[in-house]
Amino acid sequence: MTLAPGRKKEKLDRLAELSAVHDDERGVSLWREAMGRLRRNPAAIVGAAILTVFVLVAVVGPFLVPYAPTDTIGVREGVVRSGHGIIPGPSADHWLGYDHQGRDEFSRLVVGARQTLIVGIVSTLIGLTIGVLLGGVAGAAAGLGGRWGRAVDNVIMRIVDMMLSLPSLLLAVSVAALLGPSLVTVMIAVGVVSVPIFARLLRGSMIAQANRDYVLASSSLGVRKSKIAISHILPNSLAPVIVQATLTLATAIIEVAALSFLGLGNPDSAIPEWGLMLADAQQYLGIRPGLAIYPAVAIIITALGFTLLGEAMREALDPKLRR
Asked: pTM of the entire structure?
């Protein structure tokens, strides 16, 4: 479900406030206390366990699968005849059965994990890189730039707000439709969607940091504003951005699957990807509903893992919850 633009902005601004808190009264660093909270949080443990399994499957799984993901072994053996409604289900040799082209479904699901992970990470990095660049310039300009800096901040943030006002999936579909269906298109489209989120977060975080005593002390000592922004304010403003990157990975995986399902992803079905597998299974739901259920469950569980860990990190870094 997509948040309304106003609520989305409020949530991002609230998360940006996290960076305004550093060490507590006992001298314990924010990150050290946050890690302690994460280790005691059941949701964080479950999320981390899910992601560990997912990453291991994505990295190691393709080398251990019993069949090549493009091997139409079921057609060769004559056991799969999708045109006649015959697609065998799970067996001792094929744990999840065959797909409509006679390929081993388990092997394709495992290999598809790597493709899904790569696309999710790359798209998040695209959004993170551009968003940090825009948000960093806007935040430094608003916090340290004076009158002209505020003008630069206004221009950048009005563009960001326009992007943020559009539903994320609609924006992704529009970008993908303009560029044409391909794997690169999906990564760019999903990356563009997350740009305004990272930009607004970092900008708010840097403005909060610009009012802290160490910035005033650096300015009094004659340190250049550009050095203050890059060497001091920016590193101390990244906590909420890191949290959001974890949450964005969850939405990126879902949006990548959605674009592939709509036919805007990689058109080559020989390369397994969970969203494309889900799309290919639609016309065979009456024969083999498992072909749609398996990738759908994989997408849901993986997104759940990123969401649990991201929300746990957000709570661990929230100054109102610190004791």
From this structure: 0.83
